[in-house]
Amino acid sequence: MHIRPRSDDDLRQLVEVLRRTHDQDGYPAHWPNDPASWLTPPGHLTAWTAWSSGTAVGHVGLAAPDRDAASLVTRLVVHPDHRGRGIADALLATAEAAAGTACAVPALRLDVTEETPGAWRLYERRGWRLTHRAPADWAKPDGTVPTMRWYEKRLW
């Protein structure tokens, strides 16, 4: 497995990774009209693609929608067939290292649903601090409102 900066050419394969993640895990909760654009949220700074045997298997991005606040880790996804191999950990480490030199505020933030313990356990193992929990400001397709966990990690 290797990680490199995401290129536009990666997006077709990354949409397939996202589709498999959505179908298996319900992330994202609502399938986007334009999944390639969804991988590039407002305030997008940069993103990386994880590759294994010539196939895209994961993605993570950084965004700074507010220049005066900590940047966000966004769109962290790993193909379900490639989990348990350290890909999410490596992608997160890549984003953290890049943010340490590229972001104006010395911290990163992210949010995750309470119902995804594998994800939030990864963040906690990597030194992220839970800042608060609260109901989401959105609902899943079945109408339920998930509980969100917000995390922060100081970079220096």
Q: At the fourth CATH level, what is the homologous superfamily?
A: Gcn5-related N-acetyltransferase (GNAT)
User: Into which percentage range does the β-strand content fall?
Assistant: 25-35%
Oligomer designation: single chain
Strand line-up in the sheet with most strands: 1-2-3-4-5-7-6
Using brief descriptors, characterize the structure shown:
GNAT family N-acetyltransferase; single chain; 156 residues; 28% helix; Bact_Acetyltransf; alpha+beta; globular; seven-stranded mixed beta sheet; acyltransferase
Structure, described:
The protein is built from four helices and seven strands, in the order βααβββαβαββ. 28% of the residues are buried. A seven-stranded mixed beta sheet has the order 1-2-3-4-5-7-6, with helices on both faces. The chain has one domain (2-154): 3-Layer(aba) Sandwich (Aminopeptidase), CATH 3.40.630. The longest helix has 16 residues, at 87-102. By secondary structure, it is an alpha+beta fold. This is GNAT family N-acetyltransferase. Residues 1-156 form the N-acetyltransferase domain. Keywords: Acyltransferase, Transferase.
Summed up, what is this model?
The chain is built from four helices and seven strands, in the order βααβββαβαββ.
What's the helix and strand layout?
Blueprint (H helix, E strand, L loop, with lengths): L1 E4 L5 H15 L9 H4 L5 E9 L2 E9 L7 E8 L8 H16 L4 E7 L3 H9 L3 E7 L11 E8 L2
Keywords: Acyltransferase, Transferase
Protein name: GNAT family N-acetyltransferase
InterPro entries: Acyl_CoA_acyltransferase (IPR016181), Bact_Acetyltransf (IPR050832), GNAT_dom (IPR000182)
